[in-house]
Amino acid sequence: MIRTPLTDLLGIGCPVVQTGMGYVSGARLAAATSRAGGLGIIASATMSPSELRYAIKKCRERTSAPFGVNLRADAADAAERVGVIISERVPVASFALAPKPELIATLRDAGVITIASAGARRHAEKAAAWGVDAVIATGAEGGGHTGAVPTSLLVPQVVDAVGIPVIAAGGFFDGRGLAAALAYGAAGVAMGTRFLLPRDSPVADAVKRAYLAADVTGTVVTTRVDGVPHRVLRTPLVDRLEGAGRIAGLLRSARNAAAFRGVSGLRWPELIRQGRAMRRDSELTWAQVLMAANTPMLLRAAMVDGRPDLGLMSAGQVTGLIEDLPSCAELIEAITSEAEQHLKGLGGYVSPGASPGAR
User: Fold this and answer.
1) pTM here?
2) Is the pLDDT of residue 246 over 80?
3) Which one of 62, 125, 148, 266 has the minimum C-beta count within 10 Å?
4) What is the pLDDT of residue 260?
């Protein structure tokens, strides 16, 4: 047991958070993580509100431990999803990308703990001023949408800037990383790529093998997926996206937008409203908004259909250090045990009663 302000806030046994990952973080993975002592999070962006409600109920059937739901504040139905979280008495809500103050207020008034993600100090400061309970500081090493500041520089910045628990993310996969994050002043770690690869993950074996085969140089940050920096596994598909001309990219995006409409059940007016919201909140061009339709469809090809050759695989650089497929319980137990050993070992460097500069 490692007790921190994060474990006290969430009521969990280990300061480890499994991040929300589209098509991956469903009831099965979230429940397995929470049951093991961490905080499991259901990713709702790729679910309809009714699917989200079902996933919450299935997660609660599997564990009585706290878990959370991740949502996008820029979704046209974000308020409806917040209503589902509140009505189903989910204890924690986390935000992908920028949160909105009115959604934070609604959740907090209902007693839901809120967590925001930030890739820069100013974003963390803004979210803290809006009243979130904790913030995930994600460094450039992390997978998916990423910023430019390395974790080792971002986390101390955010810790010094906000007076709430900070969760370090980007490059963490073991107990040494947890001990390092605590030394930086963080209250825990969040991991995405590491939680793609336990046996409890629904990701297909062929996709898991692609992650395990990558080295620390096997990822690339590209803007050719949805118009903003996105760290993914380097594959022939990604190389083709990088080499495609602007017109070809937009045509591909239009096809994916149509396919996403069919899968999600959304009508064109609803997609257009979401696009307008994305432009307003993220200052994206219409071309970038159109490109954003690539993400759910390309993720689906890999994470649902099990086709690493045809799909997109968000990945942190840490994928090059992961070599095994434990269960969530084995993973969290190993992280906790290793972190305890390193924290105790670090105490040996301090000589009781010695003054600075003493010889």
Assistant:
1) 0.86
2) no
3) 148
4) 47
